[in-house]
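Lecture notes, part 5. Sequence design as translation. It can be helpful to think of inverse folding as translation between two languages: the language of shapes and the language of residues. The source text, in structure tokens, appears below.
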């Protein structure tokens, strides 16, 4: 079954990445230095909205390593990681996989939203970023940051600026302010020069702190 799951994963990459890197390299001194360090690596989408949002919930407030460990155990519980199959899981089994009671509630609510058709999944490609965020934050356990990660990692939207992201703020602090504390307004001002490719620049801020890419 594990082999089947792996075979089902399709990874997509943004067609705009090369153009974005060219633009950022010309416009920004930090990007000119950072971008060549990471070769052809770029944002990747797993192509499954439910899985992406589930991973985001599992990873909330714990380390990347711990999140991956819990995810591996949770992913192994259902026959297939779909909303319908998650709704059939026993709470005790989900807790035994390392999920808190609250995260179990969040994952069940997420599965209910998908399974009931309350989300406009087939219309997301044509919807504005803010409209999608508004729809997603109505789900328990999904705040603006998680919705922004979804825009970046699933829909591959090119101009998302997640100002609530600790890694982004830390990356701006280290790369543009010599490690001095940075306010949201200062971060936003730096990012104005990244538009219309702020998702791409954010990804490189993360890479400057942790070379291994994170995927959702």
């Amino acid at each position: 079954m594990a082999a089947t799951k792996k075979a089902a994963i399709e990874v997509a990459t943004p067609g705009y990445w090369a153009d974005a890197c060219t633009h950022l390299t010309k416009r920004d001194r930090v990007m000119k230095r950072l971008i060549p360090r990471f070769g052809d690596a770029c944002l990747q989408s797993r192509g499954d909205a439910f899985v992406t949002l589930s991973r985001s919930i599992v990873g909330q407030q714990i380390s990347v390593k711990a999140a991956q460990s819990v995810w591996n155990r949770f992913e192994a519980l259902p026959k297939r990681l779909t909303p319908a199959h998650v709704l059939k899981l026993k709470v005790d089994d989900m807790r035994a996989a390392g999920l808190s009671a609250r995260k179990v509630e969040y994952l069940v609510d997420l599965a209910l939203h998908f399974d009931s058709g309350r989300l406009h999944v087939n219309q997301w490609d044509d919807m504005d970023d803010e409209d999608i965020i508004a729809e997603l934050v109505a789900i328990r356990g999904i705040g603006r940051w998680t919705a922004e990660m979804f825009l970046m990692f699933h829909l591959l939207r090119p101009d998302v600026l997640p100002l609530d992201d600790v890694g982004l703020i830390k990356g701006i602090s280290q790369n543009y302010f010599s490690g001095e504390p940075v306010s949201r307004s200062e971060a936003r001002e730096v990012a104005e020069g990244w538009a219309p490719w702020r998702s791409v620049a954010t990804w490189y801020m993360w890479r400057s702190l942790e070379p291994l890419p994170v995927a959702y």
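The translated text above is only one of many valid answers, since several sequences can fold into similar shapes. Confidence is low (pLDDT under 50) at residues 1-8.
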